[in-house]
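Could you join me in thinking about how sequence relates to backbone shape in a protein? To get us started, please write out a protein record for me. Would you write everything just below, so we can both look at the same thing?
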Amino acid sequence: MPITVPTTERFLDEVVLHTTAFADAVHAAGQEARVPTCPEWSARDLAEHLGAVHRWCAGTVSRPGEKLVRRGPTDPPIPESDDEVSTWLLEGAATLTQAIRAAGEDTLVGGFGALVPVSFWARRQCHETLVHRADAEIAAGRDPLTDVDPVIAADAVDEHLAMVALSAQRRPDLQADGATLHLHATDEGIGDAGEWVVTLGAGGPVIEHAHRKSDTAVRGPARALLTVLTSREHPEDVGVDVLGAADLLTLWRQQGGV
């Protein structure tokens, strides 16, 4: 069965949804709260990062055909008060989604090493926002991502795997002799979109949507798979079962989980 990726418009709706939840969690945590999953950051640092990334990406998709440029100073900068920070975050999400719609999803813009369609950035920013929402909710003492649609969570897992594979050259510990990791999202209705086999080959991870016996099997809801793979939560804390060589999942979390 073909794997269907959510539409660009769906991703943009999710950016706004998860930015709203992110802003609420930052407000609840307090700007000076530490972020356990990003230990060098406060909640304010996390908010400044996400708001800056949204605005930087809006600029990227507004420059068709140009190479990716480094992030510079954010304009406007993050304000001081809690309420103003929330507004600033929502304004950044609005700026981003408006820029993507204006650019058109098939327009080629700067990407990581090559030009990519604007639709790439809609998906990337959806899942960037989703994972940082988890960070903010953990900082606020909440269970993260409890209301996330499993379809979106599964696609976030898929994108995470692809992004790690894309950066294989700077992750040499994920280059191996064919060790395999089977991931299975147990949510109803996801089907083949919720199963992956990751093979750690000599050139780095190779990702397939497949079901077969592997050295390690990891099973749980898509939301939990995402937070475990990205090192936001521990498998035993979120109902994720690990069968076989658990050290292979530990290696992924250490090398590919950020």
Observations:
- Strands lie at 108-110, 115-117, 179-185, 195-201, 204-208, 216-220, 241-244.
- The two ends are 31 Å apart (CA to CA).
